[in-house]
Amino acid sequence: MRLHGRVALITGAAQGIGRSTAIRFAEEGARVAIVDVDAPKGEATAAEIRASGGEALFLHHDIGEDAACRAMVEEAVAAWGRLDVLFNNAYWSAAGTVVELAPADWDRSMQVMLRAIYLGCKYAIPPMIAGGGGSIIATSSVHGVLAAARSAVYEAAKAGVINLMREIAVDFGHQGIRANAICPGWIVTERGEEWARTRPDVVRQAEVMYPVGRPGRPRDIANAALYLASDESSFVTGHALVVDGGLTCQLQDSLVERMAAFARAAEGKEQ
User: Fold this and answer.
1) Distance separating alpha carbons of residues 25 and 54, to the nearest angstrom
2) Active-site positions?
């Protein structure tokens, strides 16, 4: 088991990428602290892990509040005596251009997507060092390396996540801390599945856009996080691991050609 005996804390772990990663880590022997604002779903995820023979506890916190970022680390360490892996995965974001966004929405988005990661790392690194080192992982996005319309605060936060991980890698590498970001493409989570069923046209469009022929699934990211959490990635730090089915590796003219062919085919079906 790749994470046997290790303690992992995962934020935003009640559903989606976080939930899948919590289950995946537990499968590999980790004791998992699940942090989320959604108590029923968070408790259900922890119960599912325990029912499968793993160890998990649910910590009910809103990491949009500074005190929660310290409390979650302290509670995980109090429960198991150590902390080896921190996966910063929680998400909240408003949409809009810099002109459209209200300052309160900008601040709340930055609080959850960037400030909470800074605080989580601030409090997690000392017990990690005391335990001999650890792995810090943060969910960025392909939006952290490229831009999309009306996503100003999301793009800014996700780009910040990448460089924050690089900075931590530089500052604490000699003390046994590795830090990496994961940049997912479109991942169809539980909430996304229901929406996708009502929009098969969008799903088909993604199948054309992505060279692998499909959007991502939570377990795709969970497996990437497992790699970064394990000793298999012991020489990997300060890296932004793009897990996007090839979306961002293609030239724009190639993508435009495929989307134009998709549009022509769709028009032919409608006639």
Assistant:
1) 9
2) 154
| CA dist 30 → 8, 136, 162 (Å) | 6, 15, 25
- Residue 19: count other Cβ atoms within 10 Å of its Cβ: 26
Distance separating alpha carbons of residues 176 and 90, to the nearest angstrom: 25
CA distances from 59 to 90, 137, 236 (A): 13, 19, 29
Q: Domain 7-190+215-246 sits in which CATH superfamily? A: NAD(P)-binding Rossmann-like Domain (3.40.50.720)
Q: Compute how many other C-beta atoms are within 10 angstroms of the C-beta atom of residue 60.
A: 16
10-residue averages of pLDDT along the chain (271 residues): 98 98 99 98 98 98 96 99 98 94 96 97 99 99 92 96 99 99 94 76 85 95 99 99 95 82 75 56
183 close to 162: Cβ distance less than 8 angstroms? yes
